[in-house]
Amino acid sequence: MASATSLFLLAFCFTFSGLGNCGYLLDQQKDKILQLPGQPPNVDFNQYSGYVTVNQQSGRSLFYWLTESPANRDPESRPLLLWLNGGPGCSSVAFGAAEEIGPLHINADGKTLYKNAYSWNKLANLLFLESPVGVGYSYTNTTSDLYTFGDAKTAEDSYEFLINWFERFPQYKHRDFYIAGESYAGHYVPQLSQIIYKRNTGVKNPVINFKGFMVGNAVTDDYNDYVGTFEYWWTHGLISDSTYKALQAACEGSSSEHPPIECVSALRSAEAEQGNIDPYSIYTKPCTYSSSLKLRGRYPWRRGAYDPCTENYANQYFNLPEVQKAFHANITKLSYPWKTCSDIVGEYWTDSPLSMLPIYKELITAGLRIWVFSGDTDSVVPLTATRYSIDALNLSTIANWYAWYDNDKVAGWSQIYKGLSFVTVTGAGHEVPLHRPRQAFILFRSFLENKAMPGNQNSI
């Protein structure tokens, strides 16, 4: 049921503006989440979720979840952040929202939720998108879509989603807008950013008031990612000398999404030598659930998950009928269960450019705010890979490598370049906000304020 306040606003709008100008309010009310199953008491922020059609002809619809800032933090004045997870084929609802930066996380029972003390919605309104179709609740009426998606179509559909979403939520038009993501979203985020930038060019007051982006442990440039990843594995004692040399010979210079057979063989040898560790967090105990281990994927470029056990919690929760009803999700009764990562989308991925560096150069020249961060215990897209990619941009340095602090303790390191800031988070794995939620919160706050990471002082 709609609240008394929302009903009053609807009546007021219809009286003075007519249905044509107030239809968006009806759409918002349809998408408003009244209460999620297992939700803790005293949730003090508005939530919306539902579908936005991005292609009428094929019936492609993308699912979103909006968690606004709490009422006492003035959500009307806060920016909007779009969060994307990678894979390709992994759910931003499962990872970004439900175990990283979102305000509500899933308990181990897979049925109840708890509040995230360091949710980024305290700083911005958060929009999570399940993209492309076939991921999570997002769907298509054209089955062949699931086997033909790649980077270009994903970026176009995500842009179409935003254009239509802003029509449904016009109060966010012209609001400061940012994009963030991790892992293979190292492709999604700059590609979508490039489209928005190009289509905003020459527009006096663009609807999407795009200010910049940030990415974490991000797939960026296949050559440098391979060089840095293999170096990380070798220097951290995860692989043998001979396998290190085989990886260098077979993989460097090839595509990470479509590696040659010799590279696949070398990667399999590396996996066997690494043993039963969690590659997304090499110093923490891996989950022992066999079903979860399968979800991590064979190759480091394939999955964006950190903790297989938290994936289990998400798989339980988001498959509950009462949860799907509360989310206004699965309205077409999909023939397959909700999954944290789509096997089909990931396995049949088509176009995947070898490098995002040309886009970085273009957007740095455009003056957009660009931050890159890295958890230093991730062996999937490790710190060394990111450093090699940034080095390849040949940017001049404004502030050289320095330690940043949280409560007088080193929390990571940072370097500020002309046009790009790089931040590491010590002890964090592939999903930085999951491992180091407080430090990730400080990182995001610094990004929004466009300030250097804090020095040796209490930072909150």
Could you please describe the fold and organization of this structure?
The chain has 460 residues and is α/β, with parallel strands linked by helices. It has a domain of 29 residues. It contains 16 helices and twelve strands. The chain has a ten-stranded mixed β-sheet with strand order 1-2-6-3-7-8-9-12-11-10, sandwiched between helices. Strands 4-5 form a two-stranded antiparallel ribbon. Helix 1 packs antiparallel against helix 2 and helix 7 packs antiparallel against helix 8. The protein is globular, with a radius of gyration of 21 Å.
In short:
By secondary structure, the protein is α/β, with parallel strands linked by helices.
What are the main properties of this structure?
460 residues; alpha/beta; ten-stranded mixed sheet; 12 strands
Major sheet strand order = 1-2-6-3-7-8-9-12-11-10
- The amount of helix comes to 25-40%
Shape: globular
Bin the strand percentage. Answer: 15-25%
Task: Briefly note the structural class of the backbone.
Answer: alpha/beta
What is the average of the pLDDT values? 90
Poorly predicted tracts of residues: 1-5, 289-306
In this structure, how is the largest beta sheet organized? 10 strands, mixed
Q: SSE string, helix = H, strand = E?
A: HHEEEHEEEHEHEHHHHHHHHEHEEEHH
Total of helices: 16
**Separation of termini?**
39 Å
Radius of gyration: 21 Å
Task: Give a count of the beta strands, DSSP E runs of length 2 or more.
Answer: 12
